[in-house]
Design goal:
The structure is a single chain. The chain is mainly alpha-helical. α1 runs antiparallel to α2, α3 packs parallel to α6 and α7 crosses α8. It is globular.
Length: 525
């Protein structure tokens, strides 16, 4: 089951017809039924967990909301001096409810995704210490989308606690918010402020949203079928048999996997966001030309944007503003100055963010290493930023000049390619072995490239497709809306472009015997 499967590509047009023929009140019901049908086909009986999660956030949300109403009633007719104590008392109760709910959701997520990993660590420790203990564990199949809707549950309840939103008392609306089928499997991680109001409007389909939504889906199909699926064979061969290839080929494998991951995931987001647009629902963007970023920190404000925003708003900021870290900031600022002092406490919060980020991607050492890898480089950038600024001023280097920006992009890409290599490698040690061979034996072999499961015609198609991808990304980076620009062209030219694109996907997509379609990578996280 994926957003590129025949089931999905047939389901969407059928749903469009049913949705348009239904009454305005019935349309949200149709969306919810379609969402539950999609989840049922993908995970069968495990649909029970999203149903329980929906009941959970409905109950806890109303609990928090009721406490807030009780607080307002309690302070209504009391002296001003007593209000502060009453507010503090209720805030403490709300905090306990929030923490209890979050712990409950995290325990369920932990049970499905991480118990096996931590049990294996304990067994390794017992083996090293010769303790006569071995813990048996039966792996449990995780429900579809549990990593995504768990974060949505936490965000929803946290926003109620913070007073950003009021609890939604309509269970149906909450169910649709949590289960909306386009974003249940791979995100984006939406918040109640993003979609809760839109999902139940029941507006009829309109020409603009339908055509633009289909265009967006088509662009995602291009990324997936023409680029990602074509890259999957050579990338799989390189990572599986890295010892048999020269360092130059391994380096191309790093680049290939990074582009495969980007095209598969961002292509999925195009299909997801395009599907939602068809039904008049605007989802948050999850990518914004990440390879045009200035540094690693900027890259992560452009890649998987909604995940980064979640960790920023619900882990980094709360930790940074907590009393213990604020007290520590005051001490370190006095000793290290206004620039480096706050970086100490910022580093603590950043470490927790990237530990959670790595673990969220998967229960394995490679994912934790991946998180720590990015933590190290982001922290290094923060520590050296002032030194770089001073150095550029002394050397009269314009940091906004084109040569400097090209240098920044080149440096960033190297960091990202190496990081994604560790992300893809089966083990951390294999990642280091691949990196070591790349540095020691950086030579290319044309014959070697032609033994990677694709021929020269495939390479030609990949080069042209990547040039198209780069050109469109550059235009978007320059704030040029490509789809709006094409839509403004005369009808003959406009439809010539559309048909050329459709034919290109049909002809040059990597289908059939000899190709290895990419499984939905982020659906496993």
């Amino acid at each position: 089951m994926s957003y590129f499967s025949p089931f999905y590509l047939v389901m969407v047009p059928l749903l469009m017809a049913i949705y348009q023929l239904a009454s305005r009140k019935a349309r949200p019901v149709i969306l919810l039924l379609a969402s539950y049908m999609f989840i049922w086909f993908a995970s069968n009986r495990l649909i029970i967990y999203i149903l329980l999660a929906t009941l959970g956030i409905h109950y806890f949300g109303m609990w928090l909301d009721d406490l807030e109403k009780e607080k307002k009633a309690a302070i209504k007719d009391v002296e001003r001096s007593e209000r502060k104590l009453i507010k503090a008392s209720f805030k403490k109760k709300e905090w306990h409810v929030l923490i209890f709910a979050i712990v409950l959701f995290v325990i369920v997520l932990f049970a499905f995704k991480y118990v096996g990993f931590f049990v294996s660590i304990l067994n390794d420790i017992f083996a090293l210490t010769s303790a006569p203990v071995f813990i048996k564990y039966q792996r449990i199949i995780a429900p579809i989308g549990i990593s995504y809707y768990t974060l949505q549950c936490i965000a929803y309840l946290s926003d109620i606690y913070l007073g950003k939103i009021q609890a939604e008392r309509n269970l149906f609306k909450l169910a649709l918010y949590l289960a909306f089928f386009p974003c249940i499997m791979e995100g984006p991680i939406v918040r109640a402020t993003d979609t809760l109001g839109q999902l139940t409007n029941g507006e009829p389909l309109n020409y603009h949203n339908v055509t633009f939504g289909i265009q967006r889906m088509g662009w995602g199909l291009f990324k997936k079928y023409v680029i990602a699926d074509r890259l999957n064979i050579p990338v799989t061969l390189i990572f599986t048999n890295y010892a048999h290839y020269h360092g130059g080929t391994l380096f191309l494998g790093m680049i290939g996997y990074t582009m495969l991951l980007y095209c598969e995931f961002s292509g999925t987001m195009d299909v997801v966001i395009g599907t939602a647009q068809i039904f008049n629902i605007t989802l948050p963007e999850n990518f914004r030309q990440p390879f045009f970023a200035k540094n690693v920190s900027d890259f992560w404000t452009r890649w998987h944007i909604t995940l980064g925003a979640f960790f920023r708003d619900y882990i980094y900021y709360p930790m940074s503003l907590s009393k213990p870290l604020k007290a520590l900031t005051k001490k370190t600022r006095a000793k290290l100055g206004n620039h480096y002092g706050p970086l100490v406490t910022g580093a603590i919060a950043l470490f927790v963010v990237w530990f959670c980020n790595g673990l969220w991607h998967g229960a394995g050492w490679t994912y934790l290493f991946y998180g720590m890898y990015h933590f190290f480089f982001i922290l290094s950038e923060s520590l050296t930023e002032q030194l770089v600024v001073n150095g550029c001023e002394k050397l009269h280097i314009n940091r906004e000049s084109k040569p400097y920006r090209i240098f920044q992009s080149f440096k960033l890409c190297i960091f990202i390619f190496v990081g994604e290599m560790f992300f893809r490698a089966p083990t951390v040690s294999q990642g280091f072995a691949m990196l070591s061979k790349t540095l020691r034996d950086f030579t290319f072999s044309g014959k070697e490239l032609l033994k990677l499961g694709i021929d020269k015609y495939d390479y030609g198609i990949l080069i042209i497709a990547l040039i198209i991808l780069f050109a469109i990304s550059m235009l978007k980076e320059k704030k040029i809306n490509v789809r709006e620009t094409i839509a403004a062209k005369p009808i003959v030219l406009r439809w010539s472009i559309y048909y050329a694109f459709i034919i290109a996907v049909l002809i040059f997509g990597a289908y059939g015997v000899g190709y290895l379609p990419v499984a939905p990578i982020y659906a496993d996280f």
